[in-house]
Structures are given as C-alpha cells and as structure tokens.
Amino acid sequence: MSKTREERIQEEIERRVFEEEAKKRKNADELLTYEALDEASDLSREEVEQVAQRVKKEFAEREAASSHVKRNLVIAAAMFALILGLFTMSKYNAIVRLDEQVNTQWSQVENVYQRRLDLIPNLVCTVQAHAQHEEAIFKMLADARAKAGETLSADALNTSAKFQEFQQAQRELSNALGRMMAVVESNPAIKSDQAFLALQAQLEGSENRIAVER
C-alpha cells in the first residue's frame, strides 16, 4: 500500500471518527464503516483495521491529554478561588479589627473634648463676674460651645464632610476661648482670681489631653 493512499485512508477515518464523536461518541466499533473506503478497495481488511487502530490510539491519546489539562485547570482555578477567599476574609477581619480600634480610640478623643466643654460654663461664670460688659464674647463662646457639642459624636468619623464639620466647630470654639482669654489678660482682677486660675489649669490640661489623644 502506497504512503499517499494510506494517508488518504487515515484522513478519511479521522474525519469519520470526529464526526461520530460529535454525536455523543457512539460505540467505537460503529465509528468506522468500510463503505467509506470504496476508493481503497484493494486494501485488505487487516490493513484497514491496522490503520483504524492507529487512528483510534492517537485519538485516545489526544483525549487523555486534553482531560489531563482540563483537570489541572480546574484544580488551579479551585486553588486560586480558595486563596482569594482566604485573603479576602483575612482582609475583611483586619478591617473590622481596625474599625473597632478606631472607634475605641475615638471615644477617648470624645472624652477629652467633652471635658473641655464641661469646663467652659464655670470658666465663663468666673470671668463674667469681673467683665460683665463683654457679653458679645460670652454669647459667641456659648454658641461655639453648643455647635461643638452637636458635632461631638461617633458620626464624625462616618464621612469626610462630617469630620470637616467637627473640625470647624472645634476651631471656632478654640477661637472663642482665645477671645475670652484676651479679655482675661487685660483684667488683673480675673488673673488673680483663684477660682479662675484653677479652671484655667484644668482647661490647659484638657487642651494637652486633646492633643495627645488625637
């Protein structure tokens, strides 16, 4: 049998094998029909069967290699999904822990800010006793204190806008306190008042605590 004729027969057999494979892989014995080999009728049955067996062997080897690759891809995909899931879970848990730490530490910041708010009424009363004519400053301080108290909450950390609002309210309160302290500096009677001096020391301590906690 010539090599060309054998190749033609092999190609025809391969075509038939793949056609039948597309039809749900019927019985291997039905894949090949000798009717398709009319042009090679001078071949013996044994020769045709040898070619067919070789084609089937090559086809089986290709299928096995393809299945092995698919299995490896499935395993690799599963491992990747597992690693990604573990990584995501680890990151999520880390974020939760950090969020809890921030909230805990922010509560300390709130405490020192609240301590300053609580000192202001007594401080104003002491200064007011010596400088009744500074009502505008006292009103400004009262308004700034009220606004600062409204923004002093855990909600301040929820958005950038809320935190900026909190920051602005605390700056306004600090500015109002600075205005009142300027009045104190110009009034020797207030500066020598022991009650005021005690309150001033507490206020300074609060300011230091605020800086540390923040």
Description:
With 214 residues, the chain is mostly helical. The protein has six helices and no strands. The longest helix is centred in the middle third of the chain and has 84 residues, at 45-128. It is rod-shaped. The chain starts with a helix and ends with a helix.
Total helical segments: 6
Strand content: under 5%
Determine the structural class based on helices, strands and strand pairing. Answer: mainly alpha
Order of helices and strands: HHHHHH
Number of separate strands: 0
* Helical coverage, percent range: over 70%
Uncertain runs are 28-32, 37-41
- End-to-end span in angstroms? 93 Å
Q: Report mean pLDDT, rounded to a whole number.
A: 78
Radius of gyration: 44 Å
Largest sheet entry: none
Rough outline: rod-shaped
